[in-house]
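Let's study a protein:

___
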Amino acid sequence: MHAQRNESAPIETTALTLAVEGMSCGHCKLAITNEVSQVSGVKSVEVDLDTKLVHVRGTDVDDAAVVSAIDEAGYEAVAA
């Protein structure tokens, strides 16, 4: 009986939720989604206009880079 070896390194999964005031329309949602999607490691971005929350999932995502991307889109993000 042989044990199976897992050759791949562990992957750090990131789940980040940020509060973003000032989002109110489809343009806001699109602008934030486009900017955050460009951050290295980001796999998905969900923008909820009702709760003013942005949910980001990915691998080895730099939280500061996500906040900076939201800033680039013209909005201010804070930890939720």
